[in-house]
Amino acid sequence: MKLDTQKQQERHIALRVIALIFWFILFYIGTNMIVGGIVGAVAGSSTKSFGAGYAAGQQASVEFFQQYGVAVLVVQVIIFALLAYLRKLPGTSKYKANT
To answer: How far, in Å, CA of 80 to CA of 21, rounded?
Structure first.
């Protein structure tokens, strides 16, 4: 059994909360961009021109988020809470990494 002679340095709770807020904003924006892009690409794929595809994709994305926006947000919060609980996001763990 290996004895750990170095005391791990704890990260301040305020810094962990700030990191969680920062990561949630990035996670929210990133996942909305991915979902909106997929919805828009599917809707715009049946058009003949780029302009028509852009307009159809934008309209489909807006309608999708108006109809399913709350469900998407709930899934985002659940996934983010799981990532935060498992401390997979940088800056959210209780202890600083030993370097």
So the answer is: 11
